[in-house]
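Usage

Read records sequentially. Each one opens with the input sequence:
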Amino acid sequence: MDRDELLTHVRHGEPIARVDLSGMDLTGVTLGGGIFDSVSFRGARMAGASLKESILTKCDLTAVDLSGGDLRHATFDHCVLRDAVLRDARMASTRVIDGDLALADLSGADLLVAAFVSPDFTAARLCRANLDRTAILNGKVPGMDLTGARLRQTVLQKLDLTTTVLTDARFDLAVLVECRLAGMDLSGMDFSFSQLMQADLTGANLTGANLTRCNFKDADLTGARLDRIQAENTLWVGATLREATLTGARLRQAIFIDADLGAADCSRADMQQGIFTRAKCVGTRFVGTDLTYGDFSYADVSAADFSSATMARAKLHRARTEGSVGISRTVTLGDDTELAEAEDFQATKG
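and closes with the structure output:
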């Protein structure tokens, strides 16, 4: 099939199946709305071409040049785009299902509301790409380069990001569910308003990062460096922060319900109005920490160090305090008598 025959088939809405278009010059052609099944575009020159609203199934686009192409609303189902050039491509609402994008270049691409389900992004380049409301789910991303990319309301699910390049990447209202970022240097980055539920951040360096209003529910931050983070109104429900350092952190109104801060260092942090209900703070350092109006109800603060801490009106209802030091009983609130009586009555009745 030559170029003219191809264009004729597309114009008439005729499906194109099992055709070899390898190496063909299709620069700037309009193939929008085409239906392609098991077609080989391998090495084709398609810069500026349009595949808008096309459906491609099991097609081979290895090393194809689609730079500046229009792929809006196109669907790529089980296609190979390995080593493809998609620089500055328009890919709003593009869908890629089980696609091989290893070594592909999507630098500067517009991926607005695009979705990638189980993709292989090994060593792919998404530098300066616009990932606004983009979803990358359950894929392979070793060596993926997101330098300068914008990730706004982006959903990343079950991805191992430990070898991903995030230099100057901007996260805004992003969702990183069950993602692995263990040991990564994320210092100074802006993750404000992002969701990192069940993320693996063990040993990660988040020093000085902006984590305002982030959600770390059930995340693992064992041994993480969180010194001087800006993290007001953050959620750490069920999170593990054992042996983490949070010195000088700004954590006003943070919620640590059921969190484990065992042996963590929270010295000199601003944790005013923090909620530590049922939290495990065994051996935690709160030296010089501002815990004004904090709530440690039912928490275990055994062997914790509160030396020089500000604890005005901090609640310690039924908290375990064995071996702790620095708690001033004159400024803190102990057991709530009426609540304790009600709890004891309920327990007896039960």
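Summary fields computed downstream for this record:
- The helical segments are 3-11, 337-349.
- The first strand starts at residue 16 and ends at 17.
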